[in-house]
Amino acid sequence: MSEKRLEISQLGEFGLIDRISSQFSLNNRSSLKGIGDDAAVIDAGEDCILLSTDMLVEGIHFDLSYMPVHHLGYKAVAVNVSDIAAMNGKAEQITVSLALSNRFSVEAVDALYKGIKAACENYNVDLVGGDTTTSQSGLIISITAVGRARKEKVAYRNGAKINDIICVTGDLGAAFLGLQVLEREKEVFLTNPQMEPGLDKYEYLVGRQLKPEARTDIVFDLEEAGVRPSSMIDISDGLASELFHISRNAQIGVRIYEDKVPIDNLAFETAIEFKLDPITCALNGGEDYELLFTINKDDQEKIKKHPDIHMIGYIHERKDQNVMITKQGNTVALRAQGWDHFA
Ligand code: ADP
Ligand code: MG
Which atom of ligand 1 is nearest to the CA of 234? Predict the structure, then answer.
């Protein structure tokens, strides 16, 4: 008789994390929040220490044939700083761990660290350690970020309350469309190496894919405006997927309006060019690293004039009804496609 074998793809990434997390409990009083948010939260007196880690794997998360290695360094830092921002905190330190194959030269490592340094300077974080080892093929880069926030300021995924307003920053879908453009140009180049890549027109989209920024500015602006988000998450897997996290964690439902979801004009046109639905790109695209958060209705006025914060809907009590009102006025169920690397 053969042993039963459960495939990872049967559980999916989230199922697998749930399975791991159900086998552990937090036993130290200082461990305020473990698995399940953008960062772990550790008691440090009046402040909390925030801790987040992210790994980028060549061939899965990036393709060095179009990702300049210094951009990769910058992005690896930015995505970790973004997870700290998503707790309404400020990143202060990072460690960087690398697995390098002999395909990489010292110059390539220098370029990677040039990007890491630029991000450290931009976000005012200190590189304080890491680990270096070899890999049989490809590059793996894992970054851990440590941040800080006042205890009462920390924004969890589970804090959304009924009637809270749902907000997103920036615009959505552009990073995904930037990736489509890069993939297309790579194909063109592989078939005909004499062709110059036609990227100029798509500069904004490609930039959103190759050099995303963490919205540390929003954390600052919310503080200035005296607004504490009731919940917050960064958009790494796509708006729909993150809305489901907010819904599941707080046991509430979300209702958003299609015409309020911010989509850049070029992203809109490029989606059409690729025969994709722009709103689907915004809902499921991912890698925008914008912030999704909820605020009390009474705080609306305080950030209404912010040019980069968009109110897209509200929280209601029916946790099984996560819906979008389309431009035609139809109510459609949201689907969280996200990115499943095990699919
Ligand atoms: P994010 O997209 O914000 O980086 P993830 O979806 O990667 O978050 O992770 C969700 C949660 O699961 C986080 O709290 C993360 O620390 C935790 N997590 C992910 N992988 C593991 C693992 N292998 N073991 C323990 N915790 C994990
Ligand atoms: Mg996150």
Answer: 3
Q: Find out whether 219 and 90 touch, Cβ atoms under 8 Å.
A: yes
Alpha carbon distance 305, 308 (integer Å)? 9
Q: Would you put residue 124 in left (φ > 0), alpha (ψ -120 to 50) or beta?
A: left
Is pLDDT of 2 > 80?
no
3-state secondary structure of 165: strand
Q: For residue 13, which atom of ligand 1 is closest to its CA?
A: 6
- For 20-66, what is each residue's pLDDT tens digit? 999 999 999 999 999 999 999 999 999 999 999 999 999 999 999 88
Beta-bridge partner residues of 133: 99
Cβ-based neighbours of 165, under 8 Å, separated by 6 or more: 294, 295, 296, 297, 299, 300, 311, 313, 314, 315
From atom 1 of ligand 1, which residue's Cα is the shortest distance away?
38
Strand partners, 49: 42, 148
Q: Are 112 and 80 contacting, i.e. CB atoms less than 8 angstroms apart?
A: no
Other CB atoms within 10 A of residue 259 CB: 10
SS3 131: strand
Angle at 20 between CA 17 and CA 23, to 5 degrees: 145
How far is the centre of ligand 1, averaged over its atoms, from the C-alpha of 66 (Å)?
27
The verdict on the CB of residue 299 being under 6 Å from ligand 1 is: no
The pair of three-digit structure tokens given for residue 292, joined into one six-digit string = 């999704």
The protein residue with its alpha carbon nearest to ligand 1, atom 20, reads: 17
Answer for the pair 184, 276: CB distance below 8 angstroms, yes or no: no
Residue to mutate (ligand 1; options 16, 35, 292; most atoms within 8 A of CB): 35
User: Residue 85 corresponds to which tokens in the numbers above?
Assistant: 């921002």
pTM, rounded to two decimals: 0.94
Contacts of 254 (CB under 8 A, 6+ apart): 166, 243, 246, 247, 313, 314, 315, 316, 322, 323, 334
